[in-house]
Design a protein that fits this description.
alpha/beta, Rossmann fold, 5-stranded mixed sheet, two-stranded antiparallel sheet
Length: 181
């Protein structure tokens, strides 16, 4: 007995194209990102989706709006699905952030949060999801790399240290079965 979660990352942003780690900054989809968001909508709209939950950061919410606008599928913005808050490091080059990630699994970024805090946020969201949706429901989550790592950690049991040290490889969705309560 489970809820099926389809996780998608927000679409390509101008910061992604420039190699910037946006963190809690809003970011904007690039022209290519807008096309990718439309493709996501075509890929997912006919999958009997009960609801879409998206990070409330602009780049994720914009992805959801483009992908699911006019579909009749309810879209909910959710703060708990945000990227990790890199604090003073929001907006630095990705290459610099990659060198920092493993140092912040339990220790927050300066003026930000730790990856464990992201996991705690996502755990709270999943607990609510388990009490809101029936067995067999299919939910789409649109988030960020840290959101996906939290799902991998919480549902698949992968160690956070392994997740934050590995390169993030985009793909057309990740699938998880969340046991119902």
């Amino acid at each position: 007995m489970s809820i099926e979660i389809v996780f998608e990352t927000h679409s390509l942003t101008t910061d992604n194209e420039r190699g910037i780690a946006t963190g809690w900054l809003d970011g904007r989809l690039s022209e290519a990102g807008k096309l990718f968001a439309s493709e996501m909508g075509r890929r997912r709209r006919d999958e009997n989706i009960a609801a879409v939950f998206t990070s409330d950061l602009h780049r994720a919410a914009e992805t959801a709006e483009i992908a699911f606008s006019g579909s009749g599928i309810p879209v909910h913005r959710e703060l708990r699905l945000r990227e990790c808050n890199y604090g003073a490091l929001n907006g630095i080059p990705v290459s610099q952030l990659e060198a920092e990630r493993s140092l912040h699994i339990d220790v927050p970024f300066p003026d930000g949060e730790s990856y464990q805090q992201v996991v705690d946020r996502v755990r709270s969201f999943l607990d609510d999801l388990q009490h809101t949706f029936d067995n067999g429901a299919r939910i789409v989550i649109i988030g960020h790399s840290a959101t996906q790592w939290a799902l991998d950690h919480l549902i698949s049991g992968i160690a956070l240290t392994d997740l934050v040290d590995a390169p993030f490889n985009w793909r057309e969705g990740w699938f998880y079965d969340l046991p119902t309560k």
